[in-house]
Structures are given as C-alpha cells and as structure tokens.
Amino acid sequence: NQWTREARYRPLSDIAPEVYQTMKEEVRNSPWRFSYHIQPPTGLLNDPNGFVYHDGTYHLFYQWFPLGPVHGLKYWYHMTSKDLVHWFDEGAALIPNDDADSHGAYSGSGFIKDDAVHIMYTGNKRDADWVRHPSQIVGHLRSDGRIDKHLPPAIPNVPAGYTEHFRDPKVFQEASGTWYCIIGAQCDDLTGCTVLYQSEDAETWTFLGELKTQYPDFGYMWECPDYFELDDKGILLFSPQGIEPDGDAYQNIFQSGYMIGEKLALPELTYQHHAFSELDFGFDFYAPQTTQAADGRRILVGWMGLPDISYPSDMYNWAHALTLPRELTLQEGRLKQLPIRELDLLRKRTIHAQSTEINQAMTIAQAETFEIELSNLALQTTQFEIHVRAADQEATVLTYDATTQRFTLDRSRSGAEVPAVDYGTTRTVQLEQPLHQLRLFVDRSSIEIFLNDGEAVASTRIFPKSTSQDITLIGDLTADISIYEL
Ligand code: FRU
C-alpha cells in the first residue's frame, strides 16, 4: 500500500506546483465529479468546519487531506458564498504547520467576535511514540484568507478523566455575552460524551465539566457535537461511534443524530432531553455542523461520506463531498429538515411541470443532474417506485409501500461499483405520515431525498454511468410532478 505513514503526513508544500497541477487535472477529469456540490480539488474531504455568516458572506471550511483519498495530514479548505448555493473557492486557509497541529488541523467551528471571523479547532499532534496530544486552538481569519492561530493553544491539555479522543470544539455564545464551547470526548471508561468550557473573551477558557445526559453508555466516542437553540428548545447534535444496528436504525458504520430538550442549564451542565434520533437515513452522512443564517434560520451541512469506507472515486485520487444545506425547524417536537429555499437558484431549465397520471410504468424524463418534486401524491396501488439514474441494468430504486408507510432506498443496482456493501444495500425509514410529498436532488454521484416536507432525509452516494439518465415511475398514481435540470 502506497499510503505509508510518511505519505499520509506529507505536507502539500513538499509537492512541486507542477506535480500538484497534474494531480488536479487528473481529478478534474474523473468520472463522478459533482456539478453543484462542494467537493475537494484533490484528495479527501471530510467534516464541514467553521460554518459561519459574517457581513454578507457565508464561510464554510472542510477537513481536507490534499494528496489522496485517505485520512492524513488535515488542512482546512475554505469556501465562501453570498447565497449558500454558489461557492467561491478560497483555497487552503488553515495549514497544519505548528507543533500543536503537526498531525492535522482537525475539526472545529466558527464564531464572530470583534467584527471578525474566528475559529476554534483541534490541533492534532502525535509524539515520537505516536501517542496523540490534542489541544484546542483559537484563530481568526485574516483579510488575505489565511487563518492566524492564537498560539499557544487556548486549551492545551485533555482534562483528567478523558482519553486522547478529545476534539471538535463548537463555540456558541449566550445572550449575556458569555462564550461556551462543547467538545467531543471519550471518558476514561471508554464511553462517549461531551464536555463544556466557558469563557468571557473566547480566548481564555475554563473547564466546566461533562454534560449530564441520559446516555451514559452510548458508543465509545462522540464526535463533532453541536449545540443550538430553536423555539426555546435546546438541541444537541453529535456523531456517536460504536452503536450497533437496531431495526432500521444505525445501519451505517457510524451514526449522527440529535436530541431535543430543554435549554442547557449552564454552568450546571444539566440537560433534560428526549431520545436520540438519527438525522439522515441514507448511506453516506456524518459529522454535520450548523450555523445561523443572516435571517435567523438554522442551517445544517453534513459530510456526504463516512470514515473507514472506500469509495469508487478513490482510484481517481479524490473522495467525498458536502451535503446540500438544509434548514432545520421544530415541528411537533421533531426536527424537520428542508432543502434551503436558495437551492431554487440551481434550476437551469424546467424539464417537466404538470399534474401527471402514471399507469403501471412511465419514463417521464431523462436527466443526469436534476431536482424532482412530487406533490399531491394519490396512489391507486399500494406500492410505487421511482427509478433515477437508470438505464439497462442500472437504477437507483426508491420504493414506497402505502400499507406499511415504509420508504426504501435501494442502491444495489446504482452502478457497477457500490460502496460499503458489507453494511447492506438498502435503507428504510418508517414514515409517521402517509407519503404525500417527495423531493430529490440528484447530482453525478449522489442523491438527497427529502420526504413529507422534511420529515425524513437520506443522503447517499451512487456511482452510475453518466449515460444512465432515465427517470421512471412505476405504479398507478397521479401527482404534480416538477423536474428541473440543475
Ligand atoms: C470526524 C473526525 C473528527 C476529527 C476529524 C479529523 O469525521 O474524525 O472527530 O476532528 O474527523 O479529520
């Protein structure tokens, strides 16, 4: 294997510019490159980081290993946008070239202080014996697009009682002005949890302790926590590792989800909350992060990928993308997730827009990158299917069964190569309401499914031939159907 430890920790600055240019061109010519998702120019993308709005601009960074489709020396890659849809490539902003982050600038969050974008992230450092020493580092974005690190680290050590798995600070501010950060951790007894720190200036932090939840034993590590408030409720997101499959739930290698509760009582660290639910029933979703939009909406972006899984694009030297941004709202005690309304800006051409009657089966259009919405769905058969990116032997198949209200996504025939088959090739969600509305966003190598105005969402990578473009409905039904080329 070419990915020796040396190769994984080689900095981008070691590579001659013309060699890197060739890598970029090879990636650009790869099949399955996205048309409207954030993807790495080369190498591997993972978690969204530092998502924040400031002065007319959204900033969204991502975890990036430049040199190949593996996890190695991580940088923060910087994207900016005025509308959350069209993104401008700002290049690498956070470079892991200090002692405290010598083995990677790991995940973290953004916040606005003194009218400037600030971040807090985990410096990943390993010593000569390969023992990990995480620290939490504050920085700010300079006008030249680089992050200035405020060294030494704001939180130089792991507090007593926790292991070296201590990372991913998410900073938030109380109305009173006090700053907090929540960090993903593993307790000495090898269970996952989160801890909180408090600060008056977001530079000097005081350890408060562990958040008291009703999940003292729920996986071995909680990565990428996020805390925010919506309609007077306190919502905690995190990505627990080590949860066993349970019915339809927890089918992927790692999960991410949320709990809704009362607002965190700080600094007492109590949290009255309901049960954990997964955010997404697709195959490829992890480590989401939220921010507040200019108009107050809560927006979430996730990593459309998972750790420790190989993907067909690996052979072309790149991996993964971010999901589309979603708006989160609370309805009847549940989190609803809708594609942000700005995504309408992606529509290039209307392919189909009419009330349509389907008898048995009908190929209604052909497209590679598109959005489709079905509303006012009336079914005459108990089951119906939608096939997208279909041709010959290939199809990504969505099935709804009206008797059970179960909706299934099957990617077993999505293309010649299907990732993570050891984790199965179907995912199913049990809907609370009969299916009445469905919206799909399909890109060259992904599908994002939104059911019943945000009741359930699935994000999934698929690797079809570019010529597989049939959109086919099977069953007896009528619906208002709109299809837009994106
Ligand atoms: C989650 C994660 C984080 C870590 C980062 C490293 O995918 O493992 O916990 O900070 O990725 O890239």
TrEMBL record:
<comment type="pathway">
    <text>Glycan biosynthesis; sucrose metabolism.</text>
</comment>
<feature type="domain" description="Glycosyl hydrolase family 32 N-terminal">
    <location>
        <begin position="37"/>
        <end position="339"/>
    </location>
</feature>
<dbReference type="GO" id="GO:0005985">
    <property type="term" value="P:sucrose metabolic process"/>
</dbReference>
<dbReference type="InterPro" id="IPR023296">
    <property type="entry name" value="Glyco_hydro_beta-prop_sf"/>
</dbReference>
<dbReference type="GO" id="GO:0005737">
    <property type="term" value="C:cytoplasm"/>
</dbReference>
<keyword id="KW-0963">Cytoplasm</keyword>
<dbReference type="InterPro" id="IPR018053">
    <property type="entry name" value="Glyco_hydro_32_AS"/>
</dbReference>
<protein>
    <recommendedName>
        <fullName>Sucrose-6-phosphate hydrolase</fullName>
        <ecNumber>3.2.1.26</ecNumber>
    </recommendedName>
</protein>
<dbReference type="InterPro" id="IPR013189">
    <property type="entry name" value="Glyco_hydro_32_C"/>
</dbReference>
<dbReference type="InterPro" id="IPR013320">
    <property type="entry name" value="ConA-like_dom_sf"/>
</dbReference>
<dbReference type="InterPro" id="IPR001362">
    <property type="entry name" value="Glyco_hydro_32"/>
</dbReference>
<dbReference type="InterPro" id="IPR051214">
    <property type="entry name" value="GH32_Enzymes"/>
</dbReference>
<keyword id="KW-0119">Carbohydrate metabolism</keyword>
<comment type="function">
    <text>Enables the bacterium to metabolize sucrose as a sole carbon source.</text>
</comment>
<dbReference type="GO" id="GO:0004564">
    <property type="term" value="F:beta-fructofuranosidase activity"/>
</dbReference>
<feature type="domain" description="Glycosyl hydrolase family 32 C-terminal">
    <location>
        <begin position="343"/>
        <end position="474"/>
    </location>
</feature>
<keyword id="KW-0378">Hydrolase</keyword>
<keyword id="KW-0326">Glycosidase</keyword>
<dbReference type="Pfam" id="PF00251">
    <property type="entry name" value="Glyco_hydro_32N"/>
</dbReference>
<dbReference type="InterPro" id="IPR013148">
    <property type="entry name" value="Glyco_hydro_32_N"/>
</dbReference>
<dbReference type="Pfam" id="PF08244">
    <property type="entry name" value="Glyco_hydro_32C"/>
</dbReference>
<comment type="similarity">
    <text>Belongs to the glycosyl hydrolase 32 family.</text>
</comment>
<dbReference type="InterPro" id="IPR006232">
    <property type="entry name" value="Suc6P_hydrolase"/>
</dbReference>
